[in-house]
Amino acid sequence: MNNKRGGTWKIIKPYVAIVASFIYFFPVLWVFLTSFKPRVDIVTTTPRFVFSPTLDHFFRLFFRRVTVAPGEFALEATPFARFFFNSIFLSLFSVALALALGTFAAYAISRFPMRNKGFLMFYILSNRMLPPIAVVVPLYLMYRTLGMMNTYWGMTLLYTAFSIPLAIWMMKSFFDDIPYEIEEAARVDGSSRFRAFYKTALPQVWVGIAATFIISLIFVWNEFLFALMLTGRETRTVPVALSTALRGERGVDWGLLASVEAIYVVPAIILAFVAQGFLLRGLTFGTVRK
Amino acid sequence: MNDDWGEMMEKGSRWKRIFDRRLATIMVAPCIIILLGMFLFPLLWSLGLSFYDYSVLRPVPPRFVGFQHYNEIIRDPYIWARFATSMRFVALAVGLQLVLGVGLAFLMYDNFKGKKFFMALMLSPMMMAPVAVGAFFRFMYDPSFGIIPYLTRTLFNVDIGWIIDPSVALYSLVLVDTWMWSPFVMLFTLAGLLSIPQHLLEMSSIDRASWWQRFRNIILPQIKPLLILALLLRTMESFRLFDTIWVMTGGGPGLATETLAITLYRVAFQHWHTGRSSAVAYIMLIVVIVLTNLYLRLSMRQEGARG
């Protein structure tokens, strides 16, 4: 009897799994649907699944009509395009920088004898574990005093520092995974340590670099609190723009908001799919290597 | 080729030896300098300020007050109540994520067609910007047109206030955090499950051991180290969670969802008590640093165990 029940369960299990994954995905789907809904179909007491889709919200997000002369309109870019650019620019640039610096550091920590290596690694990671809200208070003071508020270089520096701990921890785990013998052989053949690094070790960790890049990128892309306190009108990122849109005085424009969310979460979902095999390693800072 | 190398070695050997010896320092230094400058320096600055009465907005020079802020905070029932809210949120959210995450892992353990795709659907919530998540749950929880109140109304005939009812709001947040992060626990559990040697599982099924016995004696010991890591990471993150709560409820209604992180934001950037907020921040920091230390110790031990 036990066996028979187990058998039925085996057959329906995949279907339960599929239903579960749809439950998890439903809120995302709902936002996508909302972003294509005409305004009248969004705020209804009975949710509507059938509607004639429109791209109006996406259009309004990037363009607005301004009256040039009576009866004549021109299209103008909204500030949102700028925020979107800021998000892309800041995340790509700072993660690339963090990864470039972090790879060197990770290699050195992985390969060279060093005193207090354990403490060094703990210190590096503790930067990432700090609650952002506790760090943002002093950062706010520093940025204000040193004139770094609302500057691209200030934000780049911040996000670089924000990404470095993950970059070092994750890259160290990749370097630890490849055998040292090949580099030692290269050293015996007369290469310098640096040459052994970039000719022998580096080519073996390209996948690791790509995975680290993607996962760091997602974290910076999604970051909110630092951007909220330290950016201004010019350097504002999309998450901050999203939160201000929610505090609109004439009620929230849910259609517009849904279109922002839809655009903003898609890259993260795609990137996560690409790096699925390295997600666990990224989320545990390289301590779990599955 | 070989001659070339030999020549280069001789020419640059002195320089090269020095370079090699210093290489470790040269490679690590830029990162450490950035981290020190961007995190340690401002933190030391605010440690100093936590002993002063100071506000960024007032043009009055800071006044030294010693441990007054810390004394006040530790005696302040308001702060303790917020701390309790944080703890309740953490306990509920992490507990629920543990149960659901392990359950999901068993569902997703067997292979079936399209598993990778469905897995990606399930993992997508935790990759999304917490602000966006907060915003769209606020939309879906909306009492008049949200789909969640609609579903509970039509399916179960109950009217729940979700984020407008102070007695429910915290649970609504717990639900969102669980939705986002239970797949995270699933990921850890799956990794643990996949590392169980197949013969162990087969042996136990021949023995006709009950499901619970198999779980307790074979599966649990294998997944426990990974589960502990997952729980620790989740505890830290839900303790410091700000974005989702801020966007969804802003700490309200009333004080129902005001966790320590939200209070800290208010003290620092709405009341502008810079000195006092630095002291609150330090209390939070100490909690997190203790947890980080624990995380590292446990993950090292796990690594050691695996050989």
Q: If you had to describe this structure to a student in words, what would you say it looks like?
A:
The complex is a heterodimer of chains A (290) and B (307). Chain A has 14 helices and two strands, in the order αααββααααααααααα. With 290 residues, chain A is mainly alpha-helical. Chain A starts with a helix and ends in a 7-residue tail after the last helix. In chain A, helix 7 runs antiparallel to helix 10. Chain A folds into two domains: 76 residues, no CATH class; 205 residues, Orthogonal Bundle (MetI-like fold). Chain A is 71% helix and 4% strand. Chain A has a two-stranded antiparallel ribbon. Chain B has 307 residues and is mostly helical. Chain B has two domains: 34 residues, no CATH class; 238 residues, Orthogonal Bundle (MetI-like fold), CATH 1.10.3720. Chain B has twelve helices and two strands. In chain B, helix 3 crosses helix 9 and helix 7 packs across helix 9. The model of chain B has no long low-confidence stretch (mean pLDDT 84). The chains are: A mainly alpha (290), B mainly alpha (307). At the A-B interface, helix 1, helix 4, helix 5, helix 6 and helix 7 of A face helix 1, helix 4, helix 5, helix 7 and helix 9 of B.
